[in-house]
Amino acid sequence: MIRVLLVDDQPLIRSGFRALLDVEDDIEVVAEAADGGEGLALVRKHLPDIALIDIQMPVVDGIETTRRIAADPALAAVHVVILTNYGLDEHVFNALRAGAAGFLVKDIQPEDFLHAVRVAARGDALLAPSITRKLINRYVSQPLKTGTDTALEQLTNREREAVALVAKGLSNNQIADNMVISPTTAKTHINRAMTKLQARDRAQLVVLAYESGLVAPRNS
């Protein structure tokens, strides 16, 4: 069962998403919150698999809520998915940098929304390669000097190769085919790289790969 927490200051938005989720046999909405502060308390109480969090809210916004979740080791298994009205913007990129697993635009089709929840629950990033390139091209003008370069030196050549392929949007099976290894070995390389880079999930691994210069963005 995928356990979901909804955090949005608009009751109509929450009820709409809840109506979609409640009819699914494999998904359960465990709680709702109207702002980030309340949402964070409920995340700690319920430990959901997915926290769907609006990016713009009173009291505590979605970016700060995401940052606080990512900073708490007890919440490491919670995947944050940002909800936005506006699509690609700097707020979305900052949320990804803060630790979000991906983002969804609120006018998403119902079937795509349900698919996205299941993708995030598996630990996969909700970032198509074209979306990633647009974000990076727009908001990362040069690699950040945050210690990522030093961390990259800890990776083996195969781990670096796997990270680069993750950043290009490949699945574990596709990475395995590219590297001529088993999917299990590919997943092992990725998990070890995430541990060494202190990345919460694949989305943050993608951001780190581009910001460190390991992968260079190309115009889509």
From TrEMBL:
Pfam families: GerE, Response_reg. Residues 148-213 form the HTH luxR-type domain. Residues 3-121 form the Response regulatory domain. Signal peptide: none annotated. The modification 4-aspartylphosphate is found at D54. InterPro entries: CheY-like_superfamily (IPR011006), NreC/VraR/RcsB-like_REC (IPR058245), Sig_transdc_resp-reg_C-effctor (IPR016032), Sig_transdc_resp-reg_receiver (IPR001789), Tscrpt_reg_LuxR_C (IPR000792), WalR-like (IPR039420). SMART domains: HTH_LUXR, REC. This is Response regulator. Keywords: DNA-binding, Phosphoprotein, Transcription, Transcription regulation.
